[in-house]
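Morning, I've got a small favour to ask if you have a moment. I'm working through a protein record and want to make sense of it properly. The fold is given in discrete form, as structure tokens running alongside the sequence. Can you walk me through what the tokens say about the fold? Thanks so much in advance, here it is:
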Amino acid sequence: MDRFHGHIVRRLAAMFVLIAGPFLWGWSGPSQNNAMLQIWAQPIGVTVPQVSPRQGIKEEPSEDVAVESPLQVAAGADATGTEGQYLFSCNVSGGTEPFSFQWDLGDGTTTDQSSYYYHSYAGPGTYHWHLQVTDTTGATASAGGTIRYMLPLSIAASASPDWGTSPLTVSFVAQVVGGSTPYTVQWDFGDGSPVATGTPSEHTYVAAWLYGWKVHVIDGDGAEAITEGTISVGIPVIAAVSASAKPPYGLTVSGQGFSQGCSILINGIAVPKTVFRSFTTLIGKGGHNLHNMLPPGESVAVQVLDPVVGLPSQPYAFTP
């Protein structure tokens, strides 16, 4: 076809305009009214036609022109499994090689290493990292992200006092480390009372017993940690045990809450004789019979039985 809007085309030129995609190919002649456009969604090689100066249009092959895609980069950071260490990597598309890389890892560390880089952060925190890629023509592209480096969630707790006569009021304190805020702390005091929340907490035990308490923490991401302990109410508590290896054989039990009439038990069996020395010390006697209850090199469970409440202490592992 040699006419557009009733005008004969004497000369037709080719013009390429590169944008971020899709790409625009525009034809223009003496009049702006005869422009024709062709759009490609992907980079492509196109042929620029030649036009004769005579009336009419005659196309003749010329050269191929490569339409390059713009420089783009996608990047990310993944934990390696080593505490505080991350692998930074990226994928570059478009642009013209070779590429240069500039990493800013958010803790004052910068590097011009290649498309991947290992980095270890000194401590927990929130770090904003950034990458800029430059190609050989000077075109740039960038990517970035945020790392939340956290220690594993853990909880430590204490109860004071952990022994006494009833009623016994105990203060509980928990310390949470790691994980993400906010934390939810829940206390189970082991006596059937409702669960309490928050730290510190306080609870009163009214009956003699050996209570097992537990504290449970849940962090902002749903991670959980638990620790536990015991409270002896009206029950003796053993702190240390020692035995003499030569006649006359004897066993010394140290602790709290001992009283007249308490009995020393070894593997649930009472020693031949228990002597009350003080509220903190008991002596077991029995000569060779006692010695036979303490085989050398073998672990035994030592307890103290309270005659009033009729409950034994928590077993204490002892190896003669």
Remarks:
- Helices lie at 287-292.
